[in-house]
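Thread: Modeling a multi-component assembly for a lab meeting

Hi all, long-time lurker, first post. My supervisor asked me to bring a structural picture of a complex we are working on to next week's group meeting, and I have zero experience with this. I have the sequence lines for every component (379 residues in total). Could someone generate the structure of the whole assembly? Inputs are pasted exactly as I received them:
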Amino acid sequence: MHDYLLMGGYAGFIWPAYGVAALVLVAFALDSWRRVHQATTALRRLESEVAAQADRAAQAGRTAQPGGTAQAKGAASPGTPRHASDGNKAHPAAVSGKPDQPASDQSTVGS
Amino acid sequence: MHRFANPGRFLRLADRLQPWLIAATVLAFVGGLYLALFHSPADYQQGETVRIMYIHVPAAWLGMFAYCLIAVASASALIWRHPLADVAAEAASPLGAGFTLVALVSGSLWGRPMWGTYWVWDARLTSFLLLFFLYLGHMALAQAFEDRQRGRRAAAILALVGAVNVPIIKFSVDWWNTLHQPASIMRMGGPSIDPSMLHPLLLMAVAFQLFFFSALFARMKAELLSARLRVLLFNRLRSPAAAGKAAARAGGIAGHAAEARPAGEGAS
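Re: Modeling a multi-component assembly
Sure thing. I ran the full set together rather than chain by chain. Output:
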C-alpha cells in the first residue's frame, strides 16, 4: 500500500495533479449547485410575494377605487439583487419573462 | 436548436436530464479512476507518471471543447440572436478556463519528471496558455460593461476572433518542432496508444465531458432564473399589480417546478 502511494518515487507529481483536478471539479460542482439554489430560493420567495401583493391589490380594487396605489412598493427583501436605476434601461413593460430583459443591470444573484 | 430557444423548454429538459447526467458522471469517474489508478499499467519509459495522462489529456480536450462550444454559441448569438446562446457562452467560460488550468498544471507536473522542466515555450504549451488567457479575457469582457447585452456581444466577438487558436493548438505539434509529443490518438492511422491505456483515457474523457454538461446546464439554469428574477424586480418597481399578472402569466418557478417534480429529482 505504501509502495503504491509512493508511485515509484513520482508521488510528488502524480498526487498533486489528481488533487488539483479534484479541487477544481469539486469547486465547480459546489459553485454550480449554490448558484441554482440561490436563484431558485430568491425567485420562489419573490414570486410568492408578488402574487400575494397582486391578490391584495386586486381585492382592494374590487372594494374601493380602481388603480393600484403605491402602497405595495415595499422594500426589496434582503438577499435579492438591487435593481440599479440608471438611464440605460429603456425597456418598456418587460413582462415577457424572456431572459435579458431588461438588459442592463449591475448584479446577478450568486456572481 | 430552435426548439430549445425557449428558455422554459430548455429548463424543463435540463431538469429532466440532470439527475441522469450526474449519475453517469459519478459512475464514469469511479470507473475511470479505478482504471487509471489501479487497473492500468505503468509505462515502460515514463513509469507511473503516465497516470497523469488520465487527468491531463481529458482536461485539455475539454478545455478545447468548451472553447469550440463558446465560439459556436457566440456565432449563434451574433448572427441569429439565439436567446440561449449568450447564456451558454457565459456559463461555459469559467468551466473551460478551469479545465484549461487543470491541463496546464497537470502538464507542468508531468513535464518536471519527464522533460526536466515545468515549462517550455514550445508551440503547444504556448498556444494552450493563450487559450487560458482568452478564457480570462472572455469572462472579464462580458462583465466589463454596464449594459449586460453589450458586454456579451463584445465577449462573443472576442470568442470568435480567438477561435483561430483552437486549430493552432491542435496542429502545433505538427507545424513546429515541439517538446510536447505529437498526437497519439486523433491521428491518421488510428490511435497509437495501447488499449490498456486507451480505455481508461477514454473513460476519463467521458467522465469529464459529462461533468462539463452537468455543470453547464446548472449554471445556465441559474442564469435564466436570475434573469427572470430581474424581470420580476423590475416590474415590481414599476407596478405591483402588473408584476403580479406577469408572474402568473409566465407560470413562475412554482409552475415550472411542479412540472419537473414528477420526474422525481432534486434540481441540482
